[in-house]
Specification:
By secondary structure, the protein is an all-alpha fold. It has a domain of 119 residues: Leucine-rich Repeat Variant. The chain is built from 17 helices and no strands. Helix 5 runs parallel beside helix 7, helix 7 runs parallel beside helix 9 and helix 12 packs parallel to helix 14. The chain is elongated. The protein starts with a helix and ends with a helix.
Length: 276
């Protein structure tokens, strides 16, 4: 067992030496830890080998991905270097079910690793998931607020430009995707300033209010009302006035009855009456 373990360390060290993003000090780090028996960790890391998944069990990579946050929690952030390569391997797995599993748990892993490791190691993976299949994207979308709130303010603002992309899905009939987006935008209102809400979240909210599916529209009405409340309570109240004027022009004076009905539904929320 010691011989196999030694060969495993040598193999991993050679992999690290090929990664130009690591410093010489990090390259010298071994994947040895003292939290759990080393042979147990070696066995877990070996199960993520793609060739083993093809010959032993096609579901083995998915199970490893499901267990990875628990392994990371057990080892602690100080031993993240033992799992980093394995995580990146799983994040680029050919099976979308493996990537989907990681996408659903990336926010939990971010809590375990802290802001520095999250910004350096998880954000690139998160960005890759945003461009993946809808089956993978829904994982990061359902916990978008949980992940973004852990990032630095400047890094968090970079994702304002990408929120619009969630309106585009592989299947236009996937209305639950848009409904989840509306739910997450309600939570994201607490993470951004009034100008960011008005410039970036407002156009998305108006688009969702005109969705073809009623379930999406109902959630969007709540989103718009919460947005008005948030902007009204901000120090710069002109954004709230501009937003309400746009609501009147877009929906209240709409030539279609459905648009005027939308305005009435939004006005059902108590906070909007208080603002007016």
């Amino acid at each position: 067992q010691r011989t196999d373990s030694t060969l495993h360390y040598i193999h991993n060290d050679s992999d690290l030496s090929t990664n130009s993003s690591l410093s010489p000090e990090e390259e010298r780090k071994s994947k040895v830890q003292d939290v759990v028996p080393q042979a147990l960790l070696d066995q877990y890391l070996s199960m993520t080998d793609p060739s083993r998944a093809q010959t032993v069990d096609t579901e083995i990579a998915k199970h490893c991905a499901y267990s990875l946050p628990g392994v990371a929690l057990t080892l602690g952030r100080q031993n993240w270097h033992c799992l980093k390569d394995t995580y990146e391997t799983l994040a680029s797995d050919m099976q979308w079910k493996v990537r989907r599993t990681l996408a659903f748990s990336i926010h939990e892993l971010a809590v375990i690793l802290g802001d520095q490791l999250t910004a350096g190691d998880l954000v690139p993976v998160f960005n890759g998931f945003l461009k993946d299949l809808d089956e993978v994207r829904i994982g990061v979308l359902k916990h978008l607020h949980d992940f973004l709130k852990l990032l630095h303010v400047d890094k968090r603002r970079e994702y304002l430009y990408q929120l619009q992309e969630f309106l585009v899905t592989d299947n236009s009939r996937n209305w639950r995707f848009r409904a989840e987006l509306a739910e997450q935008l309600i939570l994201l209102l607490d993470l951004y300033c009034a100008r960011d809400i008005y410039d970036y979240l407002r156009p998305i909210a108006f688009s969702l209010c005109a969705d073809k599916v009623s379930s999406v529209r109902w959630i969007s009405y709540k989103l718009v009302s919460e947005m008005v409340k948030k902007l009204y309570m901000a120090s710069t109240s002109t954004f709230a006035v501009d937003l309400m004027n746009e609501l009147v022009e877009t929906f209240c004076r709409c030539h279609k009855w459905s648009g005027r009905q939308t305005f009435v539904f939004i006005c059902q929320v108590k906070c909007l009456f208080i603002c007016i």
